[in-house]
Design a protein that fits this description.
The chain is an alpha/beta fold and 450 residues long. It contains 14 helices and 20 strands. It has 2 domains: 5-221, Spore Coat Polysaccharide Biosynthesis Protein SpsA, Chain A (Alpha-Beta Complex); 233-449, Alpha-Beta Complex (Spore Coat Polysaccharide Biosynthesis Protein SpsA, Chain A), CATH 3.90.550. Helix 1 (15-26) packs parallel to helix 2 (46-53). The longest helix has 15 residues, at 307-321.
């Protein structure tokens, strides 16, 4: 068994590791190999160090994509088998190459073999956990599971000639390649024998952007199971509109009647309540199709009491006196007469898909903005006078337009939990608010004269 092995090492600014990596390769008992370094624009001394430690070929690429880098390296290779190694992976033993070659030759149906990854002493606890869980002590043949990790792997070049790595994706090119391999009735193997040290683990030390890219790709290639999505029909959703006193008029209708189309038009709401301190308002609400649990305690109308206090009281009445236990509470106010239809349905779907404690509609705001701090000092919130296309917007949440939250959050006497999701709403008219009769009259007159 003296096959030529082509070792592909991808680098970008790996000066710290490349010398150690190449010395570990040179210490291998198996000597029939070539080393091809594929560098994607290192600005440190990676290339110089690699040359000093001995490489056979150097391939330079722009516009780095992991699959593209591997493909470019293999195109320059002469070996029957391709070993793919990350520059910061260090073979543990001198039989590493022997073990990889022995495993890939053990079964004609194998397309690729990947080896164990062991954390460094200084690896983070998160990375240690992931590596120790994923790379166990039992070898396995994979015929359905497409997990494959080419930081430490060997593949058959004849397989690659028919199934190349994806040139365009930014992450998990190995997993995508493996998926295609299995579709072609080939197999993969994991071996704990051919081990390397790998300091940052399989999730890039919690790199959020990378994690998002990885999961997006996995979700598109995994055919059997998709991430769980909660079905809105399986949860009890209760909308509550708090109203203090009598309802302002808006032209020939009152505001509650005016907004009712945009409330009752939502398909995912199970019950509609008005929580009011006014018997006349309660009668109007009931005539429109809303339920009244109870005329609320007058103390809740004190200016010092909050919307949260009202919802806390109302949920307590529903649960204790009506034995009604909604899963979600939807807060809405009558002061938004131009709320677009099905807006709350959209918020409910976002609530279920985001896993948030609370979801609020929000509008993007690019205006100049300041906030008063102690001593009448003001702090600027926006990024200043720069072109809008380069400016991060402020997000202004509007709980009265619609606020979705878990009942358990309301039970803590608040509407906003720890994890908040802001749903951007492009329809700016929805945010127009009418706070009192004077404002209602003014806006209605302007509408008539428009």
């Amino acid at each position: 068994m003296n096959n030529l092995l082509s070792i592909i090492i991808r680098t970008k600014n790996e000066e710290r590791w490349i010398g150690l990596c190449l010395e570990r390769i040179k210490s291998q008992n198996y000597k029939n190999y070539e080393i091809i370094l594929v560098d994607s624009g290192s600005s440190d001394n990676t290339i110089e160090k690699a040359k000093r430690h001995g490489i056979n070929k150097l391939v330079l690429i722009d516009d780095y994509k992991p699959g593209k880098a591997i493909n470019k390296g293999i195109e320059e290779s002469n070996g029957e088998f391709i070993v793919i190694l990350s520059a910061h992976c260090l073979p543990v033993k001198n039989d590493w190459l022997n073990d990889l070659l022995e495993e890939i030759n053990s079964n004609d149906e194998l397309a690729g073999v990947y080896g164990k990854q062991v954390p460094m002493h200084f690896s983070s606890d998160e990375d240690k956990r992931d590596l120790l869980i994923v790379f166990g002590e039992d070898p396995r043949i994979q015929v359905k599971d497409s997990f494959f990790h080419n930081a430490n792997s060997i593949i058959k070049k004849k397989v690659w000639e028919n199934i190349k790595f994806n040139d365009s994706i930014s992450n998990i090119e190995d997993r995508v390649w493996a998926e295609e391999v299995l579709r072609n009735n080939l197999k993969l193997k994991y071996t704990p024998k051919a081990a390397v040290y790998h300091y940052h683990g399989i999730h890039q030390s919690g790199d959020i952007k990378r994690l998002r890219g990885v999961t997006n790709i996995i979700e598109t290639i995994t055919p059997k199971y998709k991430p769980g999505i909660l079905d809105p029909s399986k949860l009890e959703k209760c909308l509550v509109i708090p109203i203090k006193g009598e309802i302002p008029k808006f032209g020939d209708k009152n505001l509650l009647e005016y907004i009712s189309d945009s409330i009752f038009g939502n398909q995912h709401i199970d019950s509609f309540y008005v929580a009011t301190d006014n018997k006349y308002t309660a009668e109007i609400a009931k005539s429109l199709g809303y339920s009244i649990a109870k005329i609320r305690d007058p103390n809740l109308s004190d200016p010092k009491r909050t919307i949260e206090d009202v919802h806390f009281w109302h949920l307590n009445i529903l649960e204790k006196e009506f034995d009604y236990h909604p899963d979600m509470i939807i807060h809405a106010e009558i002061t938004f007469p131009f709320r677009k239809k099905h807006l709350i349905d959209e918020l409910i779907i976002s609530f279920l898909n985001s896993g948030a404690d609370t979801v609020l509609p929000a509008k993007s705001e690019f205006s100049w903005a300041w906030q008063y701090q102690e001593g009448d000092n003001i702090v600027r919130l926006d990024e200043g006078d720069i072109p809008r296309e380069f400016k991060k917007s402020l997000l202004l949440g509007s709980h009265g337009l619609g606020c979705i939250t878990h009942a358990e959050v309301v039970r803590k006497n608040t509407l906003v939990g720890n994890k908040v999701f802001l749903q951007k709403i492009k329809d700016q008219i929805s945010f127009l608010e009418v706070r009192n009769q004077k404002e209602a009259d003014s806006i209605y007159e302007r509408m008539k004269n428009a």
